[in-house]
Amino acid sequence: MQKEIFNGIVISNLSDLYKVEVNNAIYDCNARGKFKAEETSPVAGDIVEIEITDKEKKVGVIEKILDRKNYIKRPKIANLSQIILVVSMKLPKPDLLLLDKQLVYAEHMNIKPIICLNKIDLEDENKIDYIYNLYRNIGYEVIKTDAKNNVGVDEIKKYLENNITAFSGNSGVGKSTLINLLLGKTIAQEGDISNKNKRGKNTTTQVVLYKIGQSSYIADTPGFSTFDIKEIDKKDLAYYFIEFRKYIKECEYIDCSHKKEENCGIKKAVQEGKISKDRYERFCQL
Q1: Could you read off the pLDDT of 206-263 as tens digits, one per residue?
Q2: What's the CATH code, domain 5-67?
Q3: 25, 162, 171, 285 - which has most CB atoms within 10 Å?
């Protein structure tokens, strides 16, 4: 009997069980043992070939992982096309060092970043505009939202079509609230803010892709705020601060660290107000 092989997308996995969407139907699948021998395994976002072993019970086996556009190790997810970086304007306060670290990682992975400034109802307009203008002037898309009151959510929807989109940011910034509004139902659990330290409590425990539209998915992900940029050589870090790029060639030394050297194109641009001093200082911290 000939095998029935179909292409599908992994929408979640828990232990060794994978949920794979094939032609708008969800199949429970195991993966072939060969993946362990190859020291790889399917992850959410993977496009895979599955053999359907029981059509009625919707059961199958993953035979092959197709080529990935990108792969993030922690949390494990593949083929992301964009990341919406959610920054809370208050409760918790904006963590711009984390935002810049996430932007660096997105640039390194060649994934489009979009910045979402949430809880704008809680903060002074001037403080919001400072962050908004800083990143807009660099060249990033920035959206202002008040998720609790459904403000700015329609603007986010415009970016979701035909993409696999992850939401990233500290716990408590409003990721789950935004996801629930975009999906029109409560799927992602909303985190509370700890009174003790005003930081969020993490609620999401596994990567899950939620379908929105015909070929668009939202990824709810745990631990995305812990992006590991150790794999980026410190000599290359400046390249991922996109407004630094055109000034790197003005540095006297090829291996310029952009910190101690006198004839440094980036330091000169900071002094002349062409690069934000705050962004430069966070670059030095990273």
Answers
A1: 889 999 988 899 987 776 666 778 889 999 999 999 999 999 999 999 999 999 999 9
A2: 2.40.50.140
A3: 171
CATH topology of domain 72-226: Rossmann fold (3.40.50)
pTM here is 0.88
Q: 142, 198, 14: which is closest to 31 by C-alpha?
A: 14
Whether residue 105 contacts residue 223, with contact meaning beta carbons closer than 8 Å, is answered with no
Domain ranges of the chain: 5-67, 72-226, 237-285
Q: Tens digit of pLDDT for each residue in 249-267? A: 999 999 999 999 999 999 9
pLDDT band at 268 (very low <50, low <70, confident <90, very high): very high
Question: What is the β-pairing status of strands 59-65 and 47-54?
Answer: antiparallel
User: What are 126's two structure tokens?
Assistant: 């001037």
Residues 130, 191: Cα–Cα separation, whole Å: 27
Scanning the structure block, which residue is given the tokens 């107000």?
Answer: 273
